[in-house]
C-alpha cells in the first residue's frame, strides 16, 4: 500500500510513501501542489506533499447509517482551480464533495450503486460518474453540488470518457 515516486528521466524510483490499504486512484491538483490518493480498503483520502513526499493529512469519510467497510474511496476528480474534489465512494453509493483548501468533506451526494470513476465535461459544469451495479451514470451539477439526472446505460459501467469538445 504505497505510492512510488519515479524520476521519469532517470527511469528509477526516487521515493516511496506508505498509504492506506489498497490505493486506487491518484490525482494532482492542477498547480502540482498536492497529490490526492484514495485508499479503497483503508477508507480514506491521503493528501500528499509531492515535493516532500509526505502525507499532509488523511481525510476519513463518515456516512451515518453505513458501516466503515461500505465506504471505499476509489475514483477522484479535482476541479482545475483546485477548489473542489469529488471522491467516489464505491459501495457507499455516494460521491464526497471535498473542499480543496481545508480538505473538509462538504457533503455527500447520493448516486447509483457502486460508483467508481467519473469525468468532467470540458467546461467543468457537470461531473458524470459511472455506477457499476445500477447500470447508470449520474450527472452532477458541479456549482450546485447536486445530482441532477441519472442516465441508464449498459451493464456495469466502470469509467467515463468525455470528448474534448464535450459532444460525446
TrEMBL record:
Coiled-coil stretches: none
InterPro entries reported in the protein's UniProt record: Host-pathogen_enzymatic-act, N2O_reductase_N, WD40/YVTN_repeat-like_dom_sf, YVTN_b-propeller_repeat
Gene3D superfamilies in alphabetical order: YVTN repeat-like/Quinoprotein amine dehydrogenase
NCBIfam families (UniProt xref): beta_rpt_yvtn (TIGR02276)
Name of the protein described by the UniProt record: PQQ-dependent catabolism-associated beta-propeller protein
Species annotation: marine sediment metagenome
Amino acid at each position: 500500500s504505497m505510492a512510488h515516486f519515479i524520476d521519469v528521466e532517470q527511469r528509477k524510483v526516487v521515493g516511496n510513501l506508505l498509504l492506506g490499504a489498497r490505493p486506487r486512484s491518484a490525482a494532482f491538483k492542477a498547480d502540482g501542489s498536492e497529490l490526492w490518493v484514495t485508499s479503497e480498503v483503508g477508507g480514506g483520502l491521503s493528501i500528499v506533499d509531492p515535493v516532500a513526499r509526505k502525507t499532509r493529512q488523511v481525510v476519513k469519510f463518515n456516512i451515518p447509517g453505513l458501516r466503515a467497510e461500505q465506504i471505499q474511496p476509489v475514483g477522484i476528480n479535482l476541479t482545475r482551480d483546485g477548489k473542489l474534489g469529488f471522491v467516489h465512494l464505491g459501495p457507499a453509493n455516494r460521491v464526497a464533495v471535498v473542499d480543496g483548501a481545508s480538505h473538509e468533506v462538504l457533503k455527500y451526494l447520493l448516486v447509483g450503486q457502486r460508483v467508481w470513476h467519473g469525468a468532467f465535461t470540458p467546461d467543468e459544469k457537470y461531473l458524470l460518474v459511472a455506477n457499476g451495479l445500477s447500470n447508470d451514470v449520474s450527472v452532477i451539477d458541479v456549482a450546485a453540488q447536486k445530482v441532477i439526472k441519472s442516465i441508464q446505460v449498459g451493464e456495469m459501467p466502470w469509467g467515463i470518457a468525455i470528448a474534448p469538445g464535450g459532444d460525446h
